[in-house]
Amino acid sequence: MKFKLILLFLLLNICFVAFSQDKQSEKSQKQDITVTEKGLIKVSIMYPYAEGKTFNMEYYETKHMPMVAGFLGSNLVKYTIEKGLSSGIPNQPLPFMAIGTFYIKSLSEYQAAIAPNRDAIRADFVNYTNVSPVILVSEVIK
Amino acid sequence: MKFKLILLFLLLNICFVAFSQDKQSEKSQKQDITVTEKGLIKVSIMYPYAEGKTFNMEYYETKHMPMVAGFLGSNLVKYTIEKGLSSGIPNQPLPFMAIGTFYIKSLSEYQAAIAPNRDAIRADFVNYTNVSPVILVSEVIK
């Protein structure tokens, strides 16, 4: 009888420990997600819209961006791609056809990684666009 | 004796069910995070830099953006704020001083929510900037 009770107690204990550890790992994961973006540096490569300008989103998404991302190593937290749809102001032209954004930890590391590959990156531009991008370096505030 | 065994079995069962549900909710949460951004609409309010133009980031972050976000209800998935630091191209001026971005599910719902509040939003501009924003509506591709 006593043995059964001890066994019951031990098994429940193991179970609760496992359960609470699981809760904790979930909590730390949530914190990671909330914290990682704030304070990061964004490098946004913005392709302005103008008449006669073209942009091949499929090539950009499947070839160009993965190539550049591959140069950045662990400094790169994530990258995003967006496709311009319209201006948010009526009767205004579309400001940008596309924007590619690298979220990085260190700007100097980014520059050091890009410098030896700049020619390869620029040579690839003609494969998806005929417009020169505007590049914004910014800091994530929120 | 039999009663104790049944009790032990039941308690362990409850414990494992709770544990597996927790695992599942963690899994679905992870999927949400990965999936939610792709396909969302971004409305980016971009404040161009020019000489003599000013931007009060503290007011923007603590007053203006929370006010506008409050108009959007459950259509708003999240909003972000970034502060322009420099151009990514040497010897080029900073393209934007700041960008505020709303990640929304529906553009028409966004427009319907903003329309009756447009005057209040515009009247608040003078409290943090003297520049007219460029607004880009885009779709998250990746």
Automatic annotation (TrEMBL), chains A, B:
Q: Does Signal count among this protein's keywords?
A: yes
Keyword flag Signal: yes
What is an example of a Pfam family matching this protein? EthD
EthD domain location: 58-129
InterPro entries of this UniProt entry?
A: Dimeric_a/b-barrel, EthD_dom
What keywords would UniProt list here? Answer: Signal
Any one GO MF term held by the record is: oxidoreductase activity
Q: Which domain of life is it from?
A: Bacteria
Q: Which interval of the chain is the signal sequence? A: 1-20
Listed PANTHER family = BLR8190 PROTEIN
**What protein name is recorded for this chain?**
Ethyl tert-butyl ether degradation protein EthD
